[in-house]
Amino acid sequence: MNRLNSYPLSREKKNGEKTLKKLARANTCASTTSDLILKNGSNIQLLSDPNSNAIASPVISINELLNIYMTDSPSPTGPPIDAIQSPLTPSDFVSPVPKIAFSPKASFENSCLIQRERILEELIESETNYVNSLQLLLNFYITPLSNAKSCSIMFTLVKSSIGVLQVNHNKLLRFLHSVADDVSIKKNSSIAAAAFASGICEYGIDTYVYEEYISEYADITRLINSKHAENSTASYLALQTQIISGSETYLQHTQPSTMHMDLSFFSLMQRPVSRISKYRLIVELLLNNTFEIDQNYYCVQNCLNVIKAKLNTVNKSLMKIKELNVSNHIHTLVEGLDRPIEYFGKLNLSGSLLCIWVEGGEVKSSWASILCFKSYILISSVTLNENQTTCTNTFIIPLNSCSVSKDYINSANFGGLVSDYPLSLKLQFENSYCKYELLLASIIELEYLIWKEHLESYIFLNGENKFDYSYSRNNQHDVFKCPSNLNPYDIHLSKYDCENLRLCYFLEVIPVEITKSNGKGLRQSECVSIELKFRDRLRVEELLQAIWTVSLPLLGTKAISQNESRKHAAWRWKIRAL
């Protein structure tokens, strides 16, 4: 039994001794030194071994080593490899046959899957950064600017738009995360691509909000970069510049040095402007990397078409704003305007009404250009000469200081300018503890109703004045302008100055009779008679035609329909007059 157990070991020992002898013969024949040496006739030892006392032996070629190894290694099947006498060549090393054959189609699909997963990850990362940038813009720039009393109303308007964008894109971000975390949907699948594209269309692009924001962005850019900002030392400009520069400095210095980003005011304001284009690019890439022609592919394709249509709508709206160039037209209509027109916000209604007021103890009247913004109304009387038409006697009135009344004859504060003309209304306002009034009259009933509705709505939104002089105590920083010797109809008896006391008529009744051209009025001697001249109105329309609101009727180029001419007596009088 012992002989049987020791047989493999003795055979193995003989094979090892045979291998070592051949190695020794090869070392003797070699001509160069090597790190391999023989020691004690049984072990191979490195020359670099500090315990070695042997002398460096010649190098053994790789072919000889391989031949020795192959010769002494027993073959599990077949005859021993001792018969192999020739050295191995590179052709003897043949790679095994692959189990999976190469396919160009499979390679393309794998590439699409990888790219699609990267695109979806990029969308989530981009949306996260976008939501964070909106938060930074709102907290560090827009909110401080909108809270400053002397800054433009534009910052309050854009604050509202950014708030809506935040809500929408937070919904989109939560939706994207829910799809990415859904274990039943692979991150690189066409289902995920279709879900992401649908989420962008549903939550990410509110066309109206983006149109409003881009319009406000253009106005704010012109406001900050206008010539008034370069030459004026007004308090609102100084405060505006101080807030913006202070926030920029803080954000730039509090960033980590490894992730330094441009967080300046205009950089953050620009990001919503280019956001829809970013979505279009991402969905285009998703479509290009969706190789499965199924319902998910067509879903991504439809979403891309929707995004392109929305982007086109926003771009057209922006082009109309640029072509209209309202600011240049308005500066020619408002005399002595010391700040950019963008300061007052978006122009909501522009047209013309007959304006009546008391100045220097006399009742004056004129066709006026009326520009209604969200928080201000600008009124400029139009002087009609033979050679030119000019605008003078400008009123700039904050709407939160106003009240509008149609049935002012039956009101508790009856007095001042009064008229029984049916298409007239009274605009009352307050400034520096003085109360003033304007009588506004229209020719056409439709025009009258539009102006009445808009004034009532915007005054309500801004907060109607109670005329208890609380406005004068709390709103001294609002922009206000009126003729220097405009007569107030009432004053605060403990806050007056001598000039206002002299001009005030203390609600003395001033009856005004308004008649149309060729109309037969009563012409009472105790009434101030004012005639509505249609030719003068047509000249004012020509002056304002570039910015005239479409919803307001025109006596000139855009005639009222035949049915309207039968309905409104004012239009019939207009036809007779012309």
UniProtKB/TrEMBL annotation:
GO terms for molecular function: guanyl-nucleotide exchange factor activity. GO terms for cellular component: cytoplasm. It comes from the Eukaryota. InterPro entries: DBL_dom_sf, DH_dom, FYVE_RhoGEF_PH. Residues 115-317 form the DH domain. It holds the Pfam family RhoGEF. This is DH domain-containing protein.
